[in-house]
Amino acid sequence: MESADTCSLSIINERNETMLAIESLSVGQYGFIGNAFSFGLAVMASTTLFLWLMKSQVAPAYQMAITISGLVTAIAAYHYLQIMLSWDNAATVNTGQVLVTGEGFNRAYRYVDWLLTVPLLLIELILVMKLSNSETLSRSVKLGGAAALMIVLGYPGEVAESAGTRAIFWVLSMIPFLYIVRELVVGLKESISKQPDAVKGLIKGAAYLVIASWAFYPVVYLLPLLGISGGAAIVAVETGYTIADIVAKAVFGLLIFTIAMRKSVADAEEAAKQPKAAKQTI
Ligand code: RET
Questions:
Q1: Is residue 87 classed exposed, middle or buried when 0-12, 13-18 and 19+ CB atoms within 10 A define those classes?
Q2: Which pLDDT tens digit goes with each residue over 180-209?
């Protein structure tokens, strides 16, 4: 029974020789990636709890940003659970070898996660700046739309079996990506200058953390085309995305929380400075 199973698994193995084929992993590499997914799940779930439990500590004006930040890590926690289960089901370890089961590893979970979380992350950054309603809406729509386009254009290349297709969709996805980066650098510069001194540095830091962590994704995507092959390519892609996700969602969420705390204090100090008469007229 056991040998028949092993035999059918090996046949699938031979047929599945693609660029990022799971059967090219060593047992150690297969286990390492599974552990990275498990770590990602733990970070996302605990960050969600922290953000939602601490939300009441910031002024009401910033609570929406904290709620959204927790939503981003909650969506990610759910997807990391699915990713981990799919990874476990995609292969088995038998007599020191990784054998694919034929179920396949579902790479769509990651992209659906990004499709939901990337626009939310951008909206969060815009919200915490407390711009006028119309500016908040127009920037959210423009940046959120570009982010969705970037993810949708990246997916066909991620699941493609040929290097050429991967390269083409990388180029296409880079167009909305560069637009977002330009908007963040140029467009937000002006609103950053209007922020209170206490948070100016932190908001700038958040914008640069977004750019640096986001820039990591297209680099990770390219690694299989840059001479890394076999099991090492899958390790690079899967752990690379997991690290980038932890920085872009959990670390970023905690930074947003810190900004919201400081802005709450700065707003309260500003209100205390207003003369009594002026206060009564508000
Ligand atoms: C892809 C495809 C290749 C080209 C580019 C990409 C960019 C992905 C990015 C993803 C960001 C994800 C975040 C998730 C956290 O919630 C799709 C890999 C440019 C920037 C921030």
A1: buried
A2: 988 888 767 777 787 778 788 888 888 788
Alpha-carbon distance of 264 to 201, in angstroms, equals 16
CA distance linking residue 160 with residue 117, whole number of Å = 23
Q: What is the pTM of this model?
A: 0.87
Of 271, 279, 253, nearest to 117 by C-alpha is 253
The DSSP call for residue 229 is -
Integer Cα distance of 187 and 246 in angstroms? 26
pLDDT digits (tens, 9 = 90+) for 224-280: 999 888 899 999 999 999 999 999 999 999 998 998 899 899 888 888 988 765 555
- Residue with CA closest to ligand 1 atom 5: 218
Residue reference for tokens 């092959």: 229
- Compute, in angstroms, the gap from residue 149 CA to the centroid of ligand 1: 11
pLDDT computed for residue 276 by the predictor:
61
Q: 54 CA to middle of ligand 1, Å?
A: 29
State the number of CA atoms in the 13 A half-sphere of 182 facing the CB. 8
What is the CA(122)–ligand 1 centre distance, in A? 13
Is the C-beta atom of 241 inside 6 A of ligand 1? no
Instruction: Tell me, using a 6 A CB cutoff, whether residue 71 lines ligand 1.
Output: no
